[in-house]
Known about the structure:
Elements: H1 2-26, E1 29-35, H2 54-62, H3 76-85, H4 119-125, E2 129-135, E3 159-163, H5 180-207, H6 214-242, E4 245-247, E5 250-253, H7 261-275, E6 281-286, H8 307-329, E7 336-342
Parallel strand pairs: 1-6, 1-7, 2-3, 2-6
Antiparallel strand pairs: 3-4, 4-5
Amino acid sequence: RKKMKLLLFLIIYQCTINSFKTQSASNPNVILLMADDLGIGDLGCYGNRTLRTPNIDRLAEEGVTLTQHIAASPLCTPSRAAFLTGRYPIRSGMAAFSRVGVFLFSASSGGLPSEEITFSKLLKQRGYATALIGKWHLGMNCESNNDFCHHPLSHGFDYFYGLPVTNLRDCRPGQGSVFLKGVQKSLMIPIQIAGITLVCLAIVQYIGLLKVPFQVLGYCLVITALSLAGLIFFFYHFQHLNCFLMRDHQIIQQPLSYDNLTQRLTKEAVQFIGRNTDAPFLLVLSYLHVHTALYASKTFKGKSKHGLYGDAVEEMDWSVGQVLGVLEKYELSDKTFVYFTSDQGAHVEEISSSGEVHGGYNGIYKG
């Protein structure tokens, strides 16, 4: 009987092992690496000879380069919605007809509808551990500041560490503002009109040409003061209200600090892989590089031939190398599908506050 029990145990054990191996073979790990506003001319595998991207080039050399791989939109929000769902962004209500076309504020009520079917939901249903690390930019709340209806955890991700909105110049002091020109056009002219009207009414009242009720002068003064106060409040508090780092539903850093930010995102990605070596996983590592505000850690700052933009590209390539390295460490390279892309091409019109082109490097035609 003891021999029979031992034999039965060994048979069950072997069947379990075989089942696990079959499951592992049929359910490969998936790692999706997404750059932000990266130009095709910024990588060695696509012809760049001055920016060092050995790890991304290795992916291209050992895998496949998709030269006819077209983004669904030239803007972050709709392009990422299409990436997650496999549908044109307009079908999920993620294509705007305004000039902006993306979410700029954490308080925006719009976002990727929770009923949309994302690949993260499908893989989660098949037993995958799922994580999104980095930039989201597909909305957060619907009707309150904590319903999280558009949050990554509502779209099939078990774990989220990153920015719910996006990386903007206004998030990093000294990098200028994406709103300043628009504000000048939309608010400064009405404020100037109100101010001039107030002065003219005061002069007319003073010289006696026309009797102006003091209520009118008071209204003009209040409107001008409120407009200026609103403008000051917007710029002063924008970073605190819209540029922050979250872990799942909790804000862990507000406002966002750019110190070693790529290293922190990479560390989270590496730790996620380490926690899931025995089960299939989906990791979406959505970089902030190379969207402005441009940044790089001390290790990479000033090391490239093309300023801060080049530093950011090379730091992102380092991060890709760290991810590939941890796969080799845990012997997962042959069991993992790794895909590198950008949400769309370079923002070639992007100019820094000092007038320098920051939208990519393409040979002699910078930007």
